[in-house]
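We now fix the convention by which a protein and its fold are recorded. Here is one such record, which you should read through line by line:

>
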Amino acid sequence: LAPGIGREFTGLLIDVDPDRGAGRLQLREPAVEARVKGGRRLRLGAEITATLVAADLVNGKVDFRMFG
């Protein structure tokens, strides 16, 4: 995923913490589960498009951000 930093991906919100404005995103392709931040607009079960902002596969850290 590291070459895809800055690219948008589509996925499903499988966990949401509205107090933190964060959640877990399950991508369709590639099949990856990762953290996503996006404010209080995150809704469980929603399909969203988010931007990949970090991908550290050595440490197993992949982060997305929902803008707009």
The longest strand covers residues 8-17.
